[in-house]
Amino acid sequence: MILNAFTNDIKQKPAAALLAIIITAISLVTTFLIVMLYVTDRDIERGLPEHQRLYRIESQFNLPNGDIVRSAQVPFPLVEALQKHPNIESVGYAYRLHTHLRRKGSVIPRVAVFAVTPTFMAQLHPYREDLPAPGPHDIYITADFNRHYLGWDDPLGKTVDLGESGQFTIKAIVEPHPDSSLQLPATIAFTPERVAGYPDKRLDWYDSHVYAFARLPPSQPHFDQHLLANIVANHAPQIPGAPFTPSSFLTFSAKNILDMHYDDGYADEFVKTRDKSLLHTLYTAALFVLFTTVANFFNINGILNAAKRPSLHIKRSLGASGTQILTESLSVFLPQFLTTVALATLLLGALLPLSVDVSELLLHQPMTRMLTVFFGVALFIGVMMLLSHLLSLCFFLFGNPASQTPNRYETLSIYYLNRMMLVVQLLVAGTTVYLWAGVMTQQHKALHAEVGYQKAHRLTFALDEGFYTLSSIRKLQHQLQENLGTSAFSLSSWQPFDMSRHILNVQHAQQQVQDQFTVINTLSADKYFAEVWGLKTLAGQENTLWASTDDGVCHAIVTRAFVDAMGQKTVDEVLNTRYYIPFPEGQKELRVLRVVENVDLGEHLSSPQPLLIFINDRLEKFATVAYSNDQQEAPLVALIKRHAPPNLSLQTVQALHDRHFHNDSQMLNVITLTALLALILMVISTLVISLSDAQRLDGTLKIMEAVGGSLATNMVFFLQQHVLPIVFSLLAALALGYLLLGRWLQQYDTVAGLVYVNAFAALLLLGLTVTAIMALSLVLHDGRVTRPWLRRG
To answer: I want to staple 632 with a disulfide (CB 3.0 to 4.6 A). Which of 38, 275, 316, 627 is the partner?
Structure first.
């Protein structure tokens, strides 16, 4: 009997019956994935003992020129001060070394290894295995570290040569804890000898050195941020002659360990971060999808129930009890619900091999957690489906007074229900479309912002100092130029979004005292840097770029922001000024050979940072080559790899940008898919509501047509019935969208001028689209309006 009622529904209204199941299954899958993402995110670091009392200490340096440098690390002396403070129970820390790993006769440069203290291991438990801190000559490595750098079948017990850091025996092959955000591919014990220049760094408050974690005593429920400010005021030394105090320059903060995995934009971050705005976007999108699909199910299910109501009214008139009518009308619910759950399961099974993100989210989860979440979400969807059936019965059957005919009561109920559903649907869809247009405009500005260098047709890779020499790289350069017509190799200490640069002070005779502490970012590069990266020259084009042969003189390229930082008015003034740089080994003269347009190194700051590029003639960290077209890329990569170590990683500059903006692109994709789904559901809902209203007004439209009313008259009358709910919904969507978009844009230093204009235009276009769909629905309603001559004849 139950299956018969369900199949009868499909036979009577096949499109509506199948659409209700498909839309609800999509909603179930979307809600399940987002709830799983939320549960996974919530559990990160929550398994740590006493996580409420564990905090990471972070740094902020407020530079004299108004710039701010933020770091996930803190100075050594702050760690010592915290260890002695009575309100701190313990402090653990990790020091990141970039060391050279020697393997099979080659040297792999800048391999990240973490030197940790016993307290750090006891506090954070970064591995699935419960291990103490390594011994003085031991090392823990992950399987990925072995696969990437060592390539041993059985690495346990073997010796790893870390160059100047020493040789270490592999004591354990560790697996990262699934609920930890820490990324520690290789771990050794911390000792002062591991840190170059440790005696000086131990006293240096004005640099960041280690990742520090402080645990509070049980009597201290929350971290007092004033504690850090007091430590700075009482312990940090004043720099002689500096126009600032330690308290105005140094700002430290404490973040609970549960919030550590949210991306704060630290260039030296060492945990696997998640973009909080992306998560909130996903949560909001899932809420919108759930809300919209439930509303659409109510609409479509109303069509199915309307088809059965005449027979239910007849049975009620013949004396059928309310229980009998309820049982018969709800007989379709169970197969409808089970079919929806089965379809959702099939969709999830199809997504696993197709989506890497879905696979990564689900395959590492305990089966009990997944089943609990899935059945919980399915139960919620089932309750909504059941509620739809019950409300339909209450409104159109049990709530129908005996003094009113069913037709009149249903007509009035449908009138108000359609308007309520139209308002809800258009509010959700309008807000989504408004946000989508605004976010897309802002993201387009961020992705296509001017960075000061060319991104297209540039290939870059890290240089293995144990494999390459300066002469070998120049020999390869000539081979590429002869065979493929590429540019020279530009050797530099930088590639886009690499933050391992240096800062220093630059002085000149006419400089104001307060400007002497202005911090300048510095890079090292060869004479081909400006040409290969396509830097725009402002002055000094006639000067030949070359490395100085005088040990007391440095040659350099500077950016436009350097001119402002030095307090100078013209670029020609910079070329004719003699600058001095105070190095620890003594003062050196700086000669600027060329001034170029500002370069964005990767911070995306509103005001460009001054940059100084030293010109030298030595092997650097990265090599970059420019080529003419896409067809050259494959043979260029093949030729470079033919003369490269086996683990060489080549990537285009455009690929570096795409990877850097991956989270932003994901967020835009999520919002786009949500807006698309909202639009599709809005179209379906508008068609359902419009056809229902056209049926309700059928008698009135016939009368208007009989007295000579035209198609245009009928259409104006029909659209007038919906003007108020449409205008109200669009205004509410405008207000809500404006509020949400404004909050999202607060994370950006600069906002594209057309953000709100495009968002409003998209919302207005949605309103016009809804109006057009309603007009089309009237035209298509049973063919009556389109063929009036057939009825008159």
So the answer is: 627
In angstroms, the CA 333 to CA 312 distance is 16
Phi, psi of 53 (to 5 degrees): -105, 5
Measured between alpha carbons, how far is 680 from 674 in angstroms, rounded to an integer?
10
| Residues counted in the chain | 793
- Say how far apart CA 97 and CA 111 lie, in whole Å: 8
Judged by DSSP in three states, 651 sits in: strand
Contacts of the segment 80-83: beta carbons below 8 A, 24+ positions apart = 80/202, 81/231, 81/235, 82/57, 82/212, 82/214, 82/231
3-class state of residue 251 by DSSP: strand
Tokens standing for residue 431: 């807000």
Ranges of H-type helices in 202-275: 225-235, 246-249
Which residue in this structure is represented by tokens 């050797």?
A: 491
144-188 pLDDT per residue, tens: 999 888 888 899 999 999 888 889 999 999 998 888 889 899 999
Q: Determine the angle formed by the axes of helices 755-780 and 662-696, rounding to 10 degrees.
A: 30
Give the closest residue to 681 by CA, choosing from 307, 337, 421, 384. 421
Contact 176, 183 (CB under 8 A): yes
* Alpha-helical segments (H) within 697-787: 698-706, 711-720, 723-745, 755-780
The DSSP code sequence of 452-494 is: SS--TTEEEEE--TTT--HHHHHHHHHHHHHHH---PPEEES-
Q: Taking the CB of residue 721, how many other CB atoms lie within 10 A of it?
A: 16
Structure tokens at 34: 């987002």
Alpha helices in 571-707 (DSSP H): 571-575, 633-642, 653-660, 662-696, 698-706
Q: Taking the CA atoms of the chain, what radius of gyration do you get in angstroms? A: 34
Taking the C-alpha atoms of residue 675 and residue 667, their distance in angstroms, rounded to an integer, is 12
CA-CA distance, 464 to 106, in Å (whole number)? 8
- Going by C-beta distance under 8 Å and a sequence separation of 6 or more, which residues neighbour residue 366? none
Q: Which residue has the tokens 């030595």?
A: 618
Residue 117 CA neighbour count, 13 Å, CB half: 17
pLDDT digits 0-9 by tens, 674-722: 777 777 777 777 777 776 666 666 667 677 766 666 677 777 777 777 7
For the record, the structure tokens of 283 come out as 């949560």
Question: Which residues are within 8 A (CB) of 240 and not within 5 positions of it... i.e. 6 or more apart?
Answer: none
CA atoms within 13 A on the CB side of 525: 25
Listed in sequence order, the residues at least 6 apart from 319 whose beta carbon sits closer than 8 Å to its beta carbon are none
Q: Between the CA atoms of 755, 758, 761 and 767, what dihedral angle is there, to the nearest 10 degrees? A: -80
Do 451 and 600 contact (CB within 8 A), yes or no? Answer: yes
Distance CA 189, CA 137 (A): 8
**For residues 687 and 713, what is the distance between their CA atoms, to the nearest angstrom?**
20
Token pair 């640069």 is found at 501
